[in-house]
Amino acid sequence: MPNPSILILPGDGIGPEVMTEVRKIITWFGDKRGLQFGVSEDLVGGAAYDKHGKPLADETMAKAQNVDAVLLGAVGGPAYDDLDFSVKPERGLLRLRKEMDLYSNLRPAQCFDALADFSSLKKDIVAGLDIMIVRELTSGVYFGEPRGIFEEGNERVGINTQRYTESEIERAARSAFELAMRRNKKVCSMEKANVMESGILWREVVTRVAADYPEVELSHMYADNGAMQLVRAPKQFDVILTDNLFGDILSDCAAMLTGSLGMLPSASLGAPMENGRPKALYEPVHGSAPDIAGQGKANPIACILSFAMALRYSFDQGAEADRLEAAVEKVLADGVRTADLLASEGVEPVSTSQMGDAVVAAL
Amino acid sequence: MPNPSILILPGDGIGPEVMTEVRKIITWFGDKRGLQFGVSEDLVGGAAYDKHGKPLADETMAKAQNVDAVLLGAVGGPAYDDLDFSVKPERGLLRLRKEMDLYSNLRPAQCFDALADFSSLKKDIVAGLDIMIVRELTSGVYFGEPRGIFEEGNERVGINTQRYTESEIERAARSAFELAMRRNKKVCSMEKANVMESGILWREVVTRVAADYPEVELSHMYADNGAMQLVRAPKQFDVILTDNLFGDILSDCAAMLTGSLGMLPSASLGAPMENGRPKALYEPVHGSAPDIAGQGKANPIACILSFAMALRYSFDQGAEADRLEAAVEKVLADGVRTADLLASEGVEPVSTSQMGDAVVAAL
Ligand SMILES: CC(C)[C@H](C(=O)O)[C@@H](O)C(=O)O
Ligand SMILES: CC(C)[C@H](C(=O)O)[C@@H](O)C(=O)O
To answer: Which reaction equation describes what this protein catalyses (chains A, B) (predicted)?
Structure first.
């Protein structure tokens, strides 16, 4: 059997910098743990636009379809702000999600002990926080038709369509319940069923799926209340299940609670391929951070932990994922901090590359 | 000239309880300040459904169109959870917003000095916070067609339509810029222009309107980042301008930052009527709180401050609004607390009615 394959798409801004650190980690697992990967690299986002005139070349798309896992850095930046919508860097990422059919986006929001002081929230509200947001990623208003800007009378109208079929809701719901079974057996589903019919269907299907998981406690919450509860008492949640647009906003809100945006990974999973592995893309929750790009200041941990999720969800190496996560915790406990993590004066920040080296050393 | 008219719609849950306190305030302004109002009362939400089989009777709608201001308590509750979508309590409120064409929803998020300790957020992040969210309230995905649950192949699909015309965006934007002129002259507009064409049009129109307000500094932010920044550093904002759905979520998030959800009022304003006053509805941001309804525990301040907004925006009584707001601040500074405001042990909560009396006494 050939080595499992990984396609690295560093993308824009701090993407390439943090990905360099992930490469060190991949090398370490090959040398020290006998986990060899076939690694290739390509362009996405603004970087792809600069070369090909579009944010994802067809060849790159084809490659992504044929690897065991894609690791992506970040896309976008002010240099591309004035591009036409159809070639914006973000469209490269959205094309990957859609064509790989990565319907289940897992976004853990975890508060690292060593960083609890760093949250905007009071310590007792976030200490020990460990929730998982499951965001539907291939449908909803991100992809629904009709969409566009149209003439209407003597003015224009901007239109997007929120659209969910029963099967789209069902498969996302299943992945949330499966996760809950391996966690604290609670799912809270968030929508606006009081205002949107798509939310009514969402609630109905999720309730039906729940019947297959009698051990899991299901609750429903309106998404506005969900945002409020995330700030008020986030530890009430275990798994949060929500749609593409609400998931975008709620997961950023949850990420910020932990005070560790530079720390948070994500996995986007699709259906199993022939070899049994799910289609998968792993990326940090943070963006391309153009303001600090190229300065060696970025925190590579979100991207490193995204690779840990790849070990767990794509390569069935749960123990090795634990090892990598433990190494990150140790480095933090030792007080190693990139600039984004400096809660207090008097601590000298380390560079992106020093942080990567520290994690390797702790492995 | 007849006295200005107010229609009171107490609604469901704690709505009637908090409205009783507002009536005390209205009476005080009549007796002591010579501000006489013609007050009538009617049903909305579940209370209207119980009587008429729908959440807003046509007669009530007609009355609302003909008064100078509507004061609404809250709608909804578990007793109505299984009702058909078309007669849900919320539909009564949405009908009022839509038919009165209340396109500009003002939601201040203010941290009261006496309550800064009560926020989930660290004190320095929220102390002195005073931002204003302007939420477009009559369009977007709340009202766009087509909408519904349809058969498609052998399954169903839930559809809603996000839809904004240039003129809808423009009038909401104008109201935000007008407010900013009387505040700190900053507007941050939030959408998802990187993903939604309706967001692209939104950004374009807001930018155009900004040209009429050269003194106001305009910035744009993706709504997911907006949620994050609200938790990270809310004091960076002055006026936030956003659409109906994002506004729903972001304003609940902002409300929670202040730790004073039971304290926050809102105004929903439309075009000027013949008498020059805007169409207007005032309501607390909090909901019907069925868990504490009927127990005399509810905090009436959000509803009282909504009446203060009515004094300011409908009745041109800015000084009297200031007086009422100052009375609320004084009561809080004196340590009077309803149960929702009990951050620390050893404080005895007052009842809804005691809180109302305390505000009257402080006037
Ligand atoms: C970059 C952007 C298209 C993307 C999204 O809106 O999904 C991002 O915000 C995210 O959450 O992954
Ligand atoms: C009650 C509900 C229809 C309403 C909304 O979604 O607008 C509420 O959440 C609000 O924010 O006023």
So the answer is: (2R,3S)-3-isopropylmalate + NAD(+) = 4-methyl-2-oxopentanoate + CO2 + NADH
